[in-house]
Amino acid sequence: MDQDYKPIDIDYFTQQIHSLILECKQSHNFDINLFVQFASKTRNQINNTSNSKQACFLIVIQLQKCLLQIFAQQFQNKPELDEFFDAFKEYETAAKYLNLACYHIFQNLSQKEKFIFWKIAVCKIIKDNIENIRSRIFTSLEDLLDQIYKKQESEYVHKVQEKELKQDRENLKKKFFNHLQILLGFSMNENLIQNDINVFDDLCQRLYKFIKNEYEQKFKRWSQVYSVKDYLCLVEREFEINEQLFSCLNNIQQFKSHYLNIFRIIYENLVFKYKDVVLKDERGFIGLLNEFFSQQDQFDEAVSGEIIQILRVYSRFQDQEQYFKDFKQKFQQFVRENIEQQYKKQTLHHELEKQKSKYKSLVKILGDIYDKFDNLIRMCFKESDNFNGRYDLEMIVQSELKLFFINLEQSIQLTLKLCDYVHDLMMQLAKSDDQSQIKDNQEEILKVQKCLLPSVKDFDYYLIINNYRLASRLLNYLIFFEKQHALYHLDNEQYILDQMKQFCGEKKLKKINKMISETKDLLNKKIAIEFREDLTEIILINKKKWPKLYNNDQNVFQELQIFKQQFITKRQNYNARENSIKIEFSDTLSFVEIYWSEVEKTLIINCVQAAILFLFNEDDDMRTLNEIAESLKLETHQVLFQLERLVAQKILWNDKDSYFLNNSQIEQEVKEPLIVIDHNIYENQQYMNEFKPLYDKTQDLKFQLDAFIMKNLKIEKQMNHTILFDLVSKKFYPIPMSNDKLKESLEWLIKNEYICRDQKEKSVYLYK
Predict the structure, then answer these.
(1) CB–CB of 148/241 below 8 Å?
(2) Cβ partners under 8 Å of residue 50, min gap 6
(3) Which range is least confidently modeled, 36-40, 495-499, 538-542, 662-666?
(4) How far apart are CA 505 and CA 711, in angstroms?
(5) How far is it, in rounded angstroms, from Cα 352 to Cα 656?
(6) Contact present, 311 and 383 (Cβ < 8 Å)
(7) What is the pLDDT of residues 82-117, one digit of tens each?
(8) Are the C-beta atoms of residues 176 and 144 closer than 8 Å to each other?
């Protein structure tokens, strides 16, 4: 038989609750099982009373009153920091457990959701004690934070002290962190927010002032005592401590702004104020960069580590231009000066003077500089998600290299124009018998040199180009001029050369003087053509390489070929024996440009390759490797090295060791009218990769394309591939921009982690 329950006595129920809470509080043991047992005992009684719904609301009210009565006095006594948070945790636990008990008791009622009252209870106790929290509790938290900071700077004598100090410090940090999390809970309580009470915002305003004052004082102390390295070590230590203390803010989106503000205050007062010291000190940014780049083969991890430390610290915030601007400017200035210094130190022109030394092209010199900067930047940002800082520094390096190329190119163009003009005047002079014109040309040359030579940025460069032009003229005198005329023109060359001493001194002209004297010696050995039945052709072959292509010598070799064919025809008419070719090595001639009239193509080749082609006559006779090597007086492997270049460019074709001129196929297979063959005349394969064009415009275009993609993605944050391709096509018009080029740049940016693909939509790119 079912038991009949009497209507519940609210006062009796309240007394039971009061006793339960008081017992738990006194024993400091809030066991959830006690509340569950209480709920089980009263559940049926509550649900079967005639006034159950009314009783529910009354019970909730009484529960809140019980909580406040039991805990109110403890809060009214204005407890200290630890006592306050201990009392609050007990209060909150009791409220949550009572809430759970009510849920079990009233779970069959339709209005059970209204009995989730613990947040209201928390709101009530905080609201009643808000002034005490804002005054005493906030002040106590500041004192606790101050203790942590001081413990961090404390020194120790023995290992035991070190261990105790570390343990004390960790205990304090743990306590602060736990208190902070409780206050965060206050700020996520909807009831408190509705009452315009945001405890954590109020705390942060206090902390901002405290932290600002703390690090202002530390800056004054530390900046007078520590070196740059030690100072920044302390800075990073402070960042690490505060990351541990305030990490709970960074994990909640709505509190991230407070987290960033705390670190911005530390940055501005401890780091930003110190930047002038870092930028000017001998062991600061520029001094360390100079030391790093002065190293040759060895790699000093200590120096690179200090540079990485500086950039790591100072690139932390870049949302304000002032933070990193000075570092970018100093870095840019250093990059610019370093490029010029490295170029002067390892300049191509000096290397060319050392025939047996390893050759370094301009591109390789600058490539080495870029690699060194690139490695340093990657090390600086290896473990960082700060892609803005890394990208800014990489763009500085690339733009400065580009600017250096442009300036050097302008200097080169001035030098080339000057050399070409003097060369043309000298050739006019050589071809004229008019003494007045000869005199006018000489005066014009001297005037031009006097006006323009001081404007030449790199005089060594001018001398090399001048040597090259002179070599072309000397070859012309040697082959096409009668002995007396040739000697006369050599005297003119010597006269012009003597006038250059005032600009560069006699020492730098020593080689040119030697070239002229060598030519005179060759000229004196030459037997006049009309007195000989067979001709010795002299082709001067340079063992060096120059990475720029010129066309001034085209006429020389065209005339040489015509002259050769005329002589062969003449000899054949007289049934004479075959013409012989003599090869002499000299330092006076570099590249040649030959127009191949049969296929309407121009060849840019080195002198060894030119000598090989001169061996093939109009009958397209086959030549074996041994025949070519014997004719050129070169080693077989040297000739083979050049033949492979010619075959690769389809100038020749081969059948095993036999080689044929490929004029029957090349017109169809090679569409470009200009054919440039690798100009390396070394036989060692290891040098092949070092020879690149001086100014590769495709590299410049790639740099512009990468920068344009980054600029747009930085603004839009994400872009579809099709839209990006349209923008790129319009930007670079009339330069044809293919989809493959765009993909190549995008893949490079993805590989280097500047951008990434959208995981869901692969055709969308995201700015990182």
Answers:
(1) yes
(2) 7
(3) 538-542
(4) 51
(5) 36
(6) no
(7) 888 888 888 888 778 777 777 766 665 555 445 567
(8) yes
